[in-house]
Every structure is written in C-alpha cells, then in structure tokens.
Amino acid sequence: MALLGERKRKDLSFLQFTRLLVVYPWTQRFFDNFGNLSSASAIMGNPKVKAHGKKVLTSLGEAIKNMDDLKGTFAHLSELHCDRLHVDPENFKLLGNELVIVLAKYFGKEFTPQVQAAWQKMVAGVSIALAHKYH
Amino acid sequence: MVLSAADKNNIKAAWNAIGSHAGDHGAEALERMFHSFPTTKTYFSHFDLSHGSTQIKGHGKKVADALGNAVNHLDDIPTALSALSDLHAHELRVDPVNFRFLSHCLLVTLASHHPGEFTPAVHASLDKFFSTVSTVLTSKYR
Q1: Nearest to B112 among A43, A111, A120 (CB)
Q2: Rounded Cα gap, residues B23 and A50, in angstroms
Q3: Rounded mean pLDDT of B68-79?
Q4: What is the share, in percent, of chain B residues with pLDDT greater than 90?
Q5: Rounded Cα distance, A2 and A62, in Å
Q6: pLDDT at position A5, please?
Q7: What is the mean pLDDT of chain B?
Q8: How far apart are alpha carbons B11 and A123 in whole angstroms?
Q9: By Cβ atoms counted within 10 A, which residue in A21, B22, B64, B120 is the most buried?
C-alpha cells in the first residue's frame, strides 16, 4: 500500500454515494428506511442518502490517512457491516468502483491510467479490510 | 437484464457524443485496464503494451468499432455480435471476469472525457449496455 504513488488529497465531499443506489438499484435493499428512492432524481435529492454518503466519505478519508493499516482502521466497521448491517462484501467492490468512476468524471485528464491504478488498489484494500472481520 | 427504451436512447446519445473519439477511447480503456488489472496483460503477451503503442491503438479501434456496431443494433445484439461471440468462445477464450474489468475501464474513460453527459442515468444505461455485450460475448463458452 505504501507504494501506491500519486494521491490527490482533495476534499471528496462532492462525491456521490448516491450514484451507487441509481446505477445498482439492488443496493437500495439496505436503505428501506431512507424514504423516497423511487427515481434517480429522488435518490440524488434524498437528504438521508446525502448524509450517509458523507459518513462513507469521512471513513474513506480515514483510510487515506491510514493506508498502511487499513485492516486495523476498518476493524470495527467490518464487524458492524457483518454482524449488524448484514451487507454482502460484494457491495464494497461496487462502491469502490463507483468511487473510481466519479473521480474520473471530476478529475478528467488528471485521472491518468497510473492514478486510476493507484486508486483501484486503494478501493480494493478498503473492500478487503471491510470484509476482513466477516464470519 | 433488459435494455429499456430510455437505456437505448441514452446509449445512442452517448455514442453520438463520443463521435470520432471512439477509437481513442477504446485504446485508453485498454491501457487503463492493463495498469489497474495487470492480470489482463496475460492475454496480450504478443503485444507492445507501452503507452501509445500502435498495437493498442489498433486494438482499441477494433473494440470501439464492435461496440459501435452493437449500438447500431441494440434490438438484436446477439445477432450483431455473433461472429465475435464465436471468436471469443472458440479461439480467444478470455476468462469472463475480464469483460467486467474492460467494461469498468470503458466507463472510467468515458466519465473522464465526457463528464457533462455522464449523468447517473446515462452511467447506468452504459453499464447495462457493456454488461449485455459481455454476456453475449461469453454466451457460447459452454
């Protein structure tokens, strides 16, 4: 992980966790109590979705600060996602790839193949760390 | 999974916006794939994989032309891609997991070059399109 190379430490707050719910609608299964998710515009404007997106991004910010110990950083969240939230780890991969795509959209040409490769390793590491405590 | 009328409109509009850049985008998607998913290079041991390689450019154009053909036949992609499906099944035999890697890198390429058009709805339609193409190309594997 220490060899990941170039990293953009910009504010990620504009990234959209919401996109996951639009592009892969079956991921909505975990958010029954979020209210109106009936259309793309409903999802993009839903305040609970936005709030949850911020939570997720804050965690990812922690990941970037602790790239050498992702498993330790995410140990508690991993237990939570397994024991309380019952989220299939496949969803972490979907969200990770979604993040990469949104980064490409916002950074355009700066998001070179090399930068993408570094981020792919990062999101893969986060997915593995989040799944690590599953049993 | 079925492409709705809205999906088909989104796909056609996106392909129009891409226009003559399709070949370049195909090459860029391949280069991204080789960087992010190095296991995919095992299928191209006979290629020069350096940046700007003529072989990658040529192969990118091939991929883009095939996708363009599929865009022109959204109502019957299996027939339009039948020969390519045979090729992948009997000669190339690329493991199915790799189609997802290339599809992902195509989406990344399109998002980076056409951010304005790449709304969540268009993104979803393109994801479905690439997924459909991938299924067709692996449909005769066994």
Answers
A1: A111
A2: 37
A3: 97
A4: 87
A5: 15
A6: 35
A7: 95
A8: 28
A9: A21
CB contact under 8 A, B32 and A44: no
From residue B106, give the alpha-carbon distance in Å to each of B9, B27, B59. 19, 9, 14
Alpha-carbon distance A77 to nearest alpha carbon in chain B (angstroms): 26
Interchain CB distance below 8 Å, B107 and A107:
no
Q: Catalogue all structural domains in chain A, each as residue range(s) with its CATH number.
A: 6-130 (1.10.490.10)
Q: What angle do CA A61, A135, A19 make, to 5 degrees?
A: 40
The amino acid at B49 = L
Chain A hits for B31, CB-CB cut-off 8 Å, are 113
Which residues of chain B have a CB within 8 Å of the CB of A43? 120
Q: Answer yes or no: do A22 and B121 touch at CB < 8 A.
A: yes
Interface test with B, best of A109, A116, A119, A123 (most B CBs within 10 A): A116
More confident call, B24 vs A10: B24
Which ipTM value was assigned to this complex?
A: 0.72
CA distance A129 to A132: 5
> Which residues of A are less than 8 Å from B104 in CB distance?
97, 100-101
User: Residue A119: which of A67, A51, A76, A44 has the closest Cα?
Assistant: A67
pLDDT along chain A (135 residues), means of 10: 34 62 86 89 86 86 91 94 88 91 91 96 95 91
